[in-house]
Amino acid sequence: MTLQYINNELTMHGHRLSDIAKKYGTPLFVYDETMIREQCRRFHTALKASGLRYTISYASKAFSSIQLFNLMAEEQMGLDVVSEGELFTALQSKVPENQIHFHGNNKTNREIQYAMESGVEYFVIDSLDEIERLNTLAERPVKAVLRINPGVEAHTHEFIQTGQENSKFGLSVKKGLALEGIKKIQAAEHLEFIGVHFHIGSQIFESTGTIATVDLVIDWLSENHIEIDVLNIGGGFSIKYTEEDISYPIEEGIKSITDALKNACHRNNFTLPEISLEPGRSIVGEAGITLYEVGTVKNIPDVNYYVSIDGGMSDHIRTALYDAQYDLKLVNREEPHDKMMTIAGKLCESGDIIRRDIKLPTSIHTGDYLAVLSTGAYHYSMSSNYNQMLKPAVIFVTEDSIKQVVRRQTLDQLIQNDVLA
Ligand SMILES: *Cc1c(COP(=O)(O)O)cnc(C)c1O
């Protein structure tokens, strides 16, 4: 991340963030566009080095916008979508429809029809009854990948290999549902079975869980004489939210996973499939920050010191939702982080907190700007109009450009669907 203090002001690619905040208003999402491209290129380079056939599709739920999708097209990234809204947005972009994959554990008939008409590359089927619905709705051959539940769940360096059958996603390998699904797809008149998909967790910072799953899946397919053209291993690669976190080591990690795939295929005399990845967070997460303006400061002696900002859970839900941790920086000057405080949002919930118990400069006062780091994934896309808050604008920054890619919502947009009388 190209954030640094220059002349006592926090800058991105040398541009003063306080100037950007003044020009576009706050709350504001600001992305380092160069870093987004770099992350895409790191995945490409790592996969190219493996010599395998591969595709990468960006998981659009992390942050969807037309200009971001256009950037993805420029970086040879496909897209994953899970709803008609995500598909609609994707279709307005330069990403070719035959590089869009349709996911989801409960696709509506309307969504299936829309995706078929749009010419998406393939559907990732998530249940037995979806197979029948897809087959019935298909008017021409449709490619299908089956999402399986391998019974492995990885969240951190620990991965758990049993007891994860209870999931709304995928079909269980151990309970025989995955095999039943494959047979059903193969027998379906309009469906072409091309491969399997798994996604075993998110914010995974090392590769042992994925490697164990690759081994398990290739052994299982081989035992059952199922051939695949595509092995989709999902996303979930970790990012650094705070100093305690580890960013997934893309180069070594992808090498260890692709090596494991080659070994598993060799061991089983199994034809090497194309490998597909679906990173979301790791593409946009660290590249984005949120800028807020400080409002009130409230000292409760011996209890807490609250600094409130002009946004909150409407644009930053992950602290309330998962107790997620974030680092912050004072934007308009650099000072030692010497005072323990809680940064609170302005919405009507006690849980509307950006960060509890963080050391920041004592001098923080009304009118200062704060930057919350690593908010590029699952912030704008999870934003809401709670308390009739307006969704913020989004800005992309490079060394020589500052451009708005999403405008701030307007008050009129808040009531445009209200039926009067
Ligand atoms: C959420 C999701 C991803 C992306 O996860 P990240 O943690 O953002 O990389 C990829 N594939 C599937 C199926 C998902 O549900």
Topology overview:
Blueprint: E1 3-6, E2 9-12, E3 15-16, H1 17-24, E4 28-32, H2 33-50, E5 54-59, H3 66-74, E6 78-81, H4 84-91, E7 100-102, H5 109-118, E8 122-125, H6 128-137, E9 142-149, E10 153-154, E11 159-160, E12 171-172, H7 177-187, E13 191-197, H8 208-223, E14 230-232, H9 250-268, E15 274-277, H10 281-284, E16 288-300, E17 304-309, H11 318-322, E18 328-330, E19 339-344, E20 353-360, E21 369-372, E22 393-398, E23 401-406, H12 411-414
Parallel strand pairs: 4-22, 5-6, 5-15, 6-7, 7-8, 8-9, 9-12, 9-13, 13-14, 14-15, 17-19
Antiparallel strand pairs: 1-2, 2-3, 4-16, 10-11, 16-17, 16-21, 18-21, 19-20, 22-23
Helix pairs in contact: 2-9, 8-9
Residues 59, 61-62, 80, 103, 199, 202, 234-237, 278-282, 377 line the site of pyridoxal-5'-phosphate (PLP).
